[in-house]
Amino acid sequence: MGLVVGTFSMQTKQVNYRKDKVDDDLEMTMVCHRPEGLGQLEALTNFNKRELQVLYRGFKNECPSGVVNEDTFKQIYSQFFPHGDASPYAHYLFNAFDTEHSGSIKFEDFVTALSILLRGSVREKLQWTFNLYDINHDGYINKEEMTDIVRAIYDMMGKYTYPALKNDSHKQHVEAFFRKMDKNRDGVVTLDEFILSCQEDENIMRSLQLFENVI
Amino acid sequence: MAGVSAWLPFARAAAIGWMPVANGPMPVAPRDHSKRKDELIVLNVSGRRFQTWRTTLDRYPDSLLGSSEKEFFFNEETKEYFFDRDPDSFRSILNFYRTGKLHYPRYECISAYDEELAFFGIIPEIIGDCCYEEYKDRKRENVERLQDDQEENKDLKLPNMTARETMWRAFENPHTSTMALVFYYVTGFFIAISVLTNVVETVPCGTSTQQKEVPCGERYTVAFFCMDTACVMIFTVEYLMRLFAAPSRYHFMRSVMSIIDVVAILPYYIGLVMTDNEDVSGAFVTLRVFRVFRIFKFSRHSQGLRILGYTLKSCASELGFLLFSLTMAIIIFATVMFYAEKGSSSTKFTSIPASFWYTIVTMTTLGYGDMVPKTIAGKIFGSICSLSGVLVIALPVPVIVSNFSRIYHQNQRADKRRAQKVQKARLARIRIAKTGSTNAFLQSKRSGLLDELLELTGTEADEQKLSKSVSLLESQHYHLLYCLEKTTAHEFVDEQAFEQNNLETALQSYTSPSPSPSSSHGESTSTCCGCRARRKNTALPEPDPGPSPGSKPPYHHHHPQRGPLQELSAIHIQCVDPASHKTSRSSLNQKAEDGGRVNCRRGQVTTAIISLQTPPALTPEGDGLHGAPHQRRPPPPPIPPQAPPSIQTMSSSHIVKVSAL
């Protein structure tokens, strides 16, 4: 009986509407985004024309539509870390790159962030990193946010490590971090505390300069 | 990975996000000495010129175009790379470099395409999902066609087969020899005779004196019995011969055809054995029904019948669905009809099971008319029943039909099972290629190449060595992974090493961490080869996590020794310039608060004992040890271990983890 009822109740009109909606969605993803001109980008960032060309070619190759959405971003980033799961960290990175929170990264966002990371001043780099850690953008890094970030970093290591990862490895790491950074012991790290503590640490200072010559 | 090599700068830049979290210094980045601009390469394939960026080709360094192998094809006069191959196929190969996806063009011949792929060093398994099925289908067809051709040729060959094998081949392929053909036709003839006999046996032939029609079987009992005996003789002989000739008797006995054979001849023998007993004669009669199974023996003679059988087998799920839905509908409608007709008098719908018959007859639109509803409600529901029956039966039938035609055309047997195996093999190969890249990092760590890269000097020798072993792209990728290791203060190891470490943690107790080389001498004699060191590792004490938070990896430092066979118990904590790296060491090593002192014995015991067999080679071999002294470092410290446990080194700022394999 159910079969009979089901047969009779199938309405062709509904099917058509659903199909149209799918077509609309497909069309939207085909929309292309073109970045601003080369000259403008050169003015906005610290790259020269040739570097921008190289960057754009790579960008467009991977994302022909001109924008990166989060899934593609995660996929690309995961290819560099085959051992573990890079998607949590990629998620935070994506939010840090996507300054307007539009859900996709355009080439300008991409290149602006790279310009800060590779060619910016120390303060700019540290500010960018603070932004990365401050997940909810309230101006403070608290323990939960830091734990999430550190756990994401540890996830990239995967399972097979030496020594073996324990469940609270990252928690201890976070404790160490807060001991170093949180000067007034109020449980959160502000931008100034962060910048100050990083400037005191030679290792961090040196490692910030590590990727100067990447492009 | 190589497809997104253009994003490596981005990944490295993003690594700045780890820096404040890390507790130690990061390794030095490899420097890109060749600051050449990205140049266009011209590839001349049989006259057609393709141009692309050099970096595009560098994406896949393990193929011909991406490696230095293409230099063999470089033409000095025209400054281009000339390949004497098919330009049409080259199009898809070059597109692979550009887009990262390999497509299979349908107009291309499968073997020609395979050859091109093999020439350019690309494995076919990375054909994209869009084209992979087509590729595999064509390949399978090709292989089968070639096999068929080969088999026909093969039938003429093979002179030294035993009698048994000849017989089996004769049974399976009747066209191989005339004897086989004769046998084939004879058995076919007798099957037909036997079936005909069974049929005619029941026909009433003529009247006898009793004014009653008797079936022929009872009139000409002897004749029919002789006929039956003859047929059964032939079938038995055939079955025994097949059983004898079969390469695997157990498999043969389990096969469908042999079961049919047995069932066909069994009733006769059972009939012989049983006497003309009144009680069992009834059962004997039913046994005769099984004689009709002889008709299935025809399936050996008919390809179509076999395909029908396979179709039904492969459509088992559709048939099951049909049966299930029919059963559901029958029960529903029978119930409804029974209750609808309950009121009317002298109704045939006496119970629900009795209504089943009406429902089945109606749903299959047979309509015998022996049971008809009389009430109005019954008639209404009866019509609904017949309408729905048409729909339910019509639904699975096209599926079965299409299955039959598919199998018939492609002539495949057990094709789903084979496809699964192929898919598994393909995934396995891709996984191997991927783990190849994963393991490449671990391997290059072990072979100490990383140190080379991290401390590149500007000399020619080093650069050549570098380009020979690992490309700049890979070195940058490894540097990135190395930074991650430093940030989290853990290291990558491969699966076996991980398992081994787990075992060791479980088995070992924390003994005093002072293995003198003499005592460890006996245990270790492991060679330089990392693999062997792995296996001999079991008897060593485990690092004691101790009071420190988290698990910081103990670092061994191992220095090149001038002496011959030196046993080093690799317990040495990293020895660095006291001035610069104090803070880092303190966070890494639990005991290294005293910056300058390098008492390597205390605390961290590691689990690898390495023995150097050769004087430090100037090139790193593919062994587990770091052997090469660097030119930048002060002359390699040949400090022999006077106080064996505490071996000091000069300042060397890098850390070599000879992993506890």
Automatic annotation (TrEMBL), chain B:
Residues 39-138 form the BTB domain. Residues 509-527 have a biased composition (Low complexity). It is a multi-pass membrane protein. One of its GO terms (biological process) is action potential. One of its GO terms (cellular component) is voltage-gated potassium channel complex. It catalyses: K(+)(in) = K(+)(out). The chain crosses the membrane at residues 179-200, 220-240, 252-274, 319-340, 352-368, 380-401. Residues 507-562, 610-661 are annotated as: Disordered. It comes from the Eukaryota. One of its GO terms (molecular function) is metal ion binding. It is found in: Cell membrane; Cell projection, Dendrite. Keywords: Cell membrane, Cell projection, Ion channel, Ion transport, Membrane, Metal-binding, Phosphoprotein, Potassium, Potassium channel, Potassium transport, Transmembrane, Transmembrane helix, Transport, Voltage-gated channel, Zinc. Residues 542-552, 634-644 have a biased composition (Pro residues). This is Potassium voltage-gated channel subfamily D member 3. It comes from Gadus morhua. The gene is KCND3.
